Amino acid sequence: MVPYYAMTIVIAALIWGLFAMSLDLLVGYTRLYSFGHVASYGLGAYSSALLILHFDIPVPITIFLATGIATLIAVPITWICTRTHGVSFAMLTLAFAQLGYAMLFRFKEFTGGSNGLPGITRPAGPFGLDFFQSKIGYYYMVLAFLIASFLICRNIVNSPFGKVLSGIRENEMKTQALGYNVRNYKWFVAIMSYMFGSLSGALFTPYAGFASPELFFWLISGTVLIMVIVGGSGTLIGPIIGGIFFILLEHELSEITQLWPLAFGSVFIMFVLFFPQGIWGIFTTISKKSKSNPSESGHAHS
Amino acid sequence: MDFFSFLVIQSLNALSQASILFFIASGLTLIFGIMRIVNFAHGALYMLGAYIGYTVAIYTGSFFLALIIAPILVACFGIVFEKLLLSPLYKRQDGGAYLMVTFGLAVILAEAIKLTWGADPKGVQIPEMLRGIVIVFDFPFPKYRVFLIIIGVLMALSAWLFLEKTRIGLLVRAVSQNPQMVNALGTNVVFIRNLVFAIGCGLAGMGGVLAAPMVTAFLGMGSSVIIDAFVIVIIGGMGSFLGSIIGSLLVAFVLVFGAYYVPDLALAIIYLLMLIILIVRPGGLLGKEE
Fold first, then answer.
1. Do B115 and A96 touch (CB under 8 A)?
2. Nearest CA among B39, B126, B95, B135 for reference residue A32
3. What is the CATH T-level fold of the domain A4-301, as seen in this structure?
4. H or E element in which residue A252 lies
5. Residue A233: which of B105, B100, B107 has the closest Cα?
6. Using CA atoms, how far apart are residues A89 and A107, in angstroms rounded to an integer?
7. What ipTM does this complex have?
């Protein structure tokens, strides 16, 4: 149970954990470095903001609808992006995200331009249920979404489909030569990744009470990538930990020191250079070692 | 103002903007061409150049001295960065790792600059001889922008001559095509790479010094310009020097004329242009597909 005063920051941390996990499907399992993952977050965030402002639909339903809308938009975009790989993929996703960012300012009357959309509430319902309006209720809802998404993603990556993705990660040409339609696999996983990313964005606006163009700014794509790598890419649980860990750490450290972003960047570079397996990867290696060591020493003694 | 002089003045504006964009984009494309590194920190290096330029101009009182010293310092910084953080990654064969390390550096640099120079924008004075205006077809045009156009053209010409007419330029082009072969023929490929990385960083730094009198040196100037530079390099073709010139001109003209005719759409047009080119010609106008 989380103490009430900490609830606000914990909800943000869970949302970011979900966001980072969604990117892991692309980065960790398929080695598609997306530099435009903010597009999913921003689309989800603006969809739920607009749905609440214009239709006042109960908040859980809003989140499903917003995720659905954002995912539909992602279908053609990811189709184009997954025609490519490597650096081109990174640049193409960045281009689409920037196009979305520019569109926010083009359709001002709709998106609020640089002011964004303030005054987003959490509409009550469905069936007169007002539990999700409260902060505690919303916390449980976010937690439930995170756990459900994690279970779905784990099933995906452990399925035969997920094994083909790992094949693409290790050797795309070879996987294609084995007769798999690599493009469609990449397309499908990109859609899934965008879907969970937009879910996290859709959860953000009713929590924060606003949507602003910053939710669409490209630096967020980099930040979330950092969380995935530091947490441990290709593990799902690692990026969740990475996301939660960073938001909580940022909250704690930014109160005592101005140096937070400096530490953030340095830690990130250290991880890329020396611990590419990330926090979760280090943790599992250590726990494996400590498990295997006693048995080895046992053999030596016997 | 009749249509013809409007066209001339706006074109000159676009050319001066293209000049600054060229400084950033050409460095980016040179580095990519020879090292296959997409340098996310390039915008931060441009910002670093602007701030160092500001300090040098304050202490020496000379903008032109700043224009020489700042790029050299930025280039030195680039070499240190390459030696310390990029070279350990060369054997890993993973383009994503470069993206991430350079992105990390961009974050660090932005913060370090904030800590060193503070959060307020720093205005840089235009030197005495470049203040004021010249008259073009009876209309005033700032002298400093004329200076930008001239220095941009000079830099493009000398870089082209360097690449096409000198022996080192020949080696640079050779390394970008087949580094193993050049290495086998007895050339120090590592030296060529360091040189190009330094030149690329120095160009970004110089762009920063040149931009500072117009937009002031401010935090965040790096993160907006890096995206423009990416667009240019993608449109022109990653690794193509000529492509970066064409891309800079294209983007600057669309921005300047777009801001006049379709103010809300100018940015969107540029990204759309980049998307179309990426889809139709994934390697860019003058590049080859990877």
1. no
2. B95
3. ABC transporter involved in vitamin B12 uptake, BtuC (1.10.3470)
4. helix A237-256
5. B100
6. 27
7. 0.78
pTM: 0.86
Residue B92 half-sphere exposure, CB side, CA atoms within 13 Å?
15
Q: Beta-strand (E) ranges in chain B?
A: 133-136, 139-142
Say if residues B107 and A265 touch (Cβ distance below 8 Å): yes
Q: Tell me the per-residue pLDDT of A239-284, one tens digit each, with 9 for 90 and over.
A: 999 999 888 888 877 777 777 778 878 888 888 888 888 888 888 8
Are B238 and A87 inside 8 Å of each other by CB? Answer: yes
Q: What share of chain A is helix, strand, coil (3-state, %, to 5)?
A: 80, 0, 20
User: Which residues of chain B have a CB within 8 Å of the CB of A219?
Assistant: 223
Angle subtended at Cα B201 by Cα B200 and Cα B206, rounded to the nearest 5 degrees: 100
Q: Do B264 and A108 touch (CB under 8 A)?
A: yes
Report pLDDT digits (tens) over B58-73.
999 888 999 999 999 9
A261 close to B (CB below 8 A) = yes
A114 interface with B at CB cutoff 8 Å:
no
Residues 6+ apart with CB under 8 A from A199: A18, A22, A44, A63, A67, A145, A149
Label residue B151 exposed, middle or buried (CB < 10 Å: 0-12, 13-18, 19+). middle
Nearest residue of B to residue A82 by CA position?
A: B279
Q: Which residues of A touch B290 (CB under 8 A)?
A: 86-88
| CA–CA separation, B249 and B158 (whole Å) | 18
Residue A9: name the closest of A275, A250, A262, A283 by CA: A250
Asked if A261 and B97 come within 8 Å (Cβ–Cβ), the reply is no
Contact of A90 with chain B, judged by CB distance below 8 Å, is answered with yes
Q: Which residue has the tokens 């010249």?
A: B134
Q: Are A37 and A93 in contact (CB under 8 A)?
A: yes
Tell me: cis bond preceding B142? Omega within 30 of 0 counts: no
* A117 membership: H or E segment, kind and range: strand A117-118
Residue A11 — φ and ψ, nearest 5°? -60, -45
Task: Count interface pairs A-B at CB distance under 8 A.
Answer: 108
Nearest C-alpha of chain A: how many angstroms from B245?
A: 19
Where along chain A do its domains lie? 4-301
Q: Which residues from A are below 8 Å from B108, CB to CB?
A: 261-262, 265-266, 269
Contact state of B271 with A95 under an 8 Å Cβ cutoff? yes
Buried b (16+ CB within 10 A) or exposed e, B169-199: eebbebbbeebeebeeeebebeebbbbbbbb
CB contacts, 8 Å: A222 with chain B = 40, 103, 106-107
Identify the residue among A81, A87, A183 best suited for mutation to test binding to B, counting B beta carbons within 10 A and taking the highest. A87
pLDDT tier at A35 (50, 70, 90 boundaries)?
Answer: confident
Structure tokens at A40: 């999913």
At residue B142, the 3 state secondary structure works out as strand
Would you call A88 an interface residue with chain B, using a CB distance cutoff of 8 Å? yes
